[in-house]
Amino acid sequence: MTVIDGKGKTLIPGLIDAHWHTNYANTPANTLIVGDMSEVTIRGFLGAEDTLMRGFTSVRDMGAILLVLRK
Question: What does the alpha-carbon distance between residue 41 and residue 43 come to, in Å, rounded to a whole number?
Fold first, then answer.
């Protein structure tokens, strides 16, 4: 068993975001409009780690209508 000394720290359970837009949150607006779908996907993927590091262990991605899909 491992014991971690958390003296002076605060421990909370993982946060849940029930309304999240991974691509919108991690991609500049111009890229969403005229960019490449591959870039948008990669930015969303990399942003997921940042979301985890902010304490969110669960998110419900609401999806997005990406203008780059209209190309």
Answer: 5
Taking a C-beta distance cutoff of 8 angstroms, is the pair 26, 69 a contact?
no
Residue 41: what pLDDT? 85
Query: Which token pair is 66?
Result: 């990406």
Q: Which helix H or strand E contains 33, and what residues bound it? A: helix 29-34
Q: Which residue has the tokens 């993982």?
A: 14
pLDDT, one tens digit per residue, over 28-71 is 888 888 888 888 889 888 988 899 998 999 999 887 666 655 55
Q: Centre a 10 Å sphere on the Cβ of residue 23 and count the other Cβ atoms it contains.
A: 20
Q: Count of CB atoms within 10 A of residue 40's CB?
A: 23
State the Cα angle at 20 between 62 and 44, rounded to 5°: 95
- Which pTM value belongs to this model? 0.63
